[in-house]
Amino acid sequence: MTAKAKTRQLVETIGELQYLLYAGADRSLLVVLQGPDASGKDGLIRHVFSGVNPQGVKVTSFGEPSKVEASHDFLWRVHLRTPAKGEIAVFNRSHYEGVLAERVRKLVSREIWAERYAVINSFESLLAESSTEILKFYLHISPEEQLERFRRRLADKSRHWKIEEADYDDRKLWLEYQTAAEEMLGRTSTKIAPWYVIPSDQKWFRNYAISRIILRSLRRMRLRTPEPQADIQKIKRKFHDEAEE
Fold first, then answer.
1. Which secondary structure element, helix H or strand E, spans residue 140, and what is its range?
2. Is 138 helix (H, G, I), strand (E, B) or coil?
3. What distance in Å separates the CA atoms of residue 35 and residue 193, rounded to the nearest whole number?
4. Is the pLDDT of residue 238 over 90?
5. What pLDDT sits at residue 232?
6. pTM of the prediction?
7. CB distance 23 to 225 below 8 Å
8. Sign of CA pseudo-dihedral 136, 197, 33, 108
9. Which of 14, 75, 100, 177 is most buried (CB neighbours < 10 A)?
């Protein structure tokens, strides 16, 4: 069986367990995706979560903060998007922009971004204490693969909206981003919220590896169909047995 076929099976099972997670409504899952431009965050979401019920999954992309968001602490807009019990939340970029892009582009001082690691760890501990499982994936691609994906976007009119000059400007800061990412991984990978570095030059491997990890996490929850809140036998007797008579 090919890796793509195995991934399809994994995705199908993720959908089945997501149904139980939604029905039970006592646990939740947060999936954090970080990585350079064109590392495949959008494509990953489209493939891995293709089998889930949209009612129980919400995806948030964290771009440049709005004026209102920027007037609060850097986690304010993030906390609003964390998963409720029974939900899966997917962050396409996340609170980690506060120690990556904002650090590299010098949008905040060293004193500010250096303090954020401890704040993030405390924030994720709070989520874990509230029965949220946290999985964090860093999609690693080579600069050569990134440039090739930029070329393909330029060649495809339907994807022109996904490319801008700022993407090329950030390539000049590649080493700075790698340094920031390495420190982020080292300072914020914890037992309750581990980082997984996923080689992502090959999309099939990226999808397969992350599908396996998400499925393993859902299985660890030991999800079961919840007990009914109503008296099922009474409902059958009242509404079905009487109808048959």
1. strand 132-140
2. strand
3. 17
4. no
5. 75
6. 0.94
7. yes
8. positive
9. 14
**CATH number for the domain running over 3-143+175-244:** 3.40.50.300
Long-range CB contact pairs, 194-200, < 8 A, 24+? 194/135, 194/136, 195/136, 195/137, 195/138, 196/135, 196/136, 196/137, 196/138, 197/138, 197/140, 198/137, 198/138, 198/139, 198/140, 199/140, 200/35, 200/39, 200/40, 200/139, 200/140, 200/141
Task: Tell me the C-alpha to C-alpha distance, in Å, between residue 240 and each of 230, 236, 243.
Answer: 15, 5, 5
Of all helices (H) and strands (E), which one includes residue 199? strand 195-199
| Nearest residue to 95 via CA among 125, 116, 115, 72 | 116
User: Would you kindly state where each structural domain of the chain is located, as residue ranges?
Assistant: 3-143+175-244
Token readout for 27 is 């646990």
Q: What is the pLDDT of residue 244?
A: 59
Beta bridge partners of 197: 138
For residue range 110-169, list pLDDT tens digits in order.
999 999 999 999 999 999 999 999 999 999 999 999 999 999 999 999 999 999 999 999
Distance between CA atoms of residues 218 and 213, nearest Å: 9
SS3 136: strand
Coil, helix or strand at residue 170: helix
Edge-first strand order for the sheet with 132-140 is: 57-61, 88-92, 28-34, 132-140, 195-199
* Tokens coding 205: 């491997």
Distances (CA, A) of 198 to 83, 108, 155, 160: 23, 28, 27, 26
Query: Is the Cβ–Cβ distance between 35 and 206 less than 8 Å?
Result: no
